[in-house]
Design a protein that fits this description.
By secondary structure, this protein is α+β, with helices and mostly antiparallel strands. Among the domains are: 57 residues; 118 residues, ANL, C-terminal domain (GMP Synthetase, Chain A, domain 3, 2-Layer Sandwich), CATH 3.30.300.30. 46% of the residues lie in helices and 20% in strands. The longest helix is centred in the last third of the chain and has 44 residues.
Amino acid sequence: MKKIISFILLALILVSCESSKTIVNNLDERSANEIVVYLASKGIAAQKIQAGSTGPGTGATNLWNIFVDEKKQVDAMTLLNQVGLPRIKGTNLLTLFDGKSLMKSDKEENIRYQAGIEEELKNIIRKIDGVLDADVRISFPQAQEVGFTATQTPKIKAAVYIKHQGIFDDPNQHLDSKIKRLVAGSIDNLSFDDVTVISDKSRIADIQMIPDVKTLGPRALDKEYVKIWSIIMTKNSASKFRTIFFTMIFLILIFAGLMGYLIYKFYPEIQKKIKASKK
């Protein structure tokens, strides 16, 4: 009887919980938001849940996992693979030359200085309305490496990559010239003509939300997931889980009390019958 009751209660718990599966792990918040928005545009409600951080201290970055409904797991992964999400990130020069070595060479210091300038320019360009992301690469040739004489000045070149929402499609904005002037004016001996700007319109900018899809909308996107022990579920399911769990505990206590009462009530009589049968 006890096993039957436990089985029924366990089945009720599993039915009441909306199961969700993780499709991507350990993303930075920007990448996680990009995936959530893209899946929402395709009619799949996704939720990001914090997984941890990259390390201790104020410089640590929070990492996120992406969860979708179990029935939509394969569809979500297929859509992400088609558009190359999440984006693959390589190692940059600041990571390779992190400044932790005891003996720092002049070349290492120079690389870190150049990478710092590039990072500053990227942050400025990202402030432009309509720019989603930017990357800057600057070539600082060394005179002794390229055979320049003392009277010649090494030629500095720069390349700028812009991911935008379509702002470059408007010729009246003159963003190409503005960015070239910005980069050329930030670096000594860099000519306006030696700055190359490459623009790329984001596919995410063309996303159209689908309000009629049942899996999308305020209720689906407002779902918040919580973790109880090793089970991931929505907050609504968590309340059902707690109700059923404590009900199960209550019934088990009643059952245990009833069994204790029956043993207390009938055990002496059973003992008397056993002794009488032995005589």
